[in-house]
Write a structure and sequence with these properties.
Elements: H1 2-12, H2 26-30, H3 32-38, E1 43-46, H4 51-58, H5 62-72, E2 76-80, E3 88-92, E4 100-102, E5 107-114, H6 121-130, E6 135-139, E7 143-148, E8 152-157, E9 164-167
Parallel strand pairs: 1-2, 3-5, 5-6
Antiparallel strand pairs: 2-7, 3-4, 6-9, 7-8
Helix pairs in contact: 3-5
Length: 171
């Protein structure tokens, strides 16, 4: 339902018609029909959800390769909430004390910390200390990341929430 609402909103704003690719399971991600649907996408939307599940469901599948090809060809990627963390090279799990996990590296050399607040800051700083080549990106609730052509990065936020950036020692 969330995907249909996003498509309706884009169409009301004058954007092109779109469709929802129903990818919930690994079998869905392995379905060549879903991969074909996404190969030439102009906008890829990832709704909030469990990052680890998203990464495990999509990685190394025909659908993921189609999404990556669309992104590399210029599609805009819009990811909200926890899903935004999959876009980095690494992400900090939603569970306190969770170890770093591998993301898709679409936002190269970034460690993304979802649901970021003051309590999550020490974990993000510790992750940056162990990966000095990276930049840390704290994404609070209600904030989305948008990746565009030419490595553009923008944020969309609700209210006064801000993205926090922590530079690694090599910057």
């Amino acid at each position: 339902n969330e995907g249909a609402q996003v498509i309706a909103c884009i169409e009301r704003l004058g954007g092109p018609a779109g469709y929802v690719a129903p990818i919930v399971t690994r079998a869905d991600a392995d379905d060549p029909k879903n991969a074909r649907r996404l190969m030439n996408a102009g906008l890829i939307y990832f709704g909030d959800g469990q990052t680890q599940r998203l990464v495990e469901t999509l990685s190394d599948t025909p659908t993921f390769r189609a999404l990556e090809a669309a992104y590399r060809a210029g599609a805009v990627v819009f990811a909200t909430g926890q899903a935004a963390s999959a876009l980095g090279a690494w992400f900090i799990g939603a569970v306190p004390g969770a170890e770093l996990a591998r993301g898709w590296d679409w936002l190269s050399d970034a460690i993304i910390c979802p649901s970021f607040d003051e309590g999550a800051a020490p974990a993000l700083r510790a992750a940056i200390r162990s990966h000095a080549e990276c930049v840390g990106v704290g994404v609070p609730r209600g904030v989305a990341l948008a990746l565009g052509p030419g490595n553009q990065v923008q944020t969309q936020r609700a209210g006064e929430r801000q993205v926090t950036v922590v530079l690694g020692a090599r910057f």
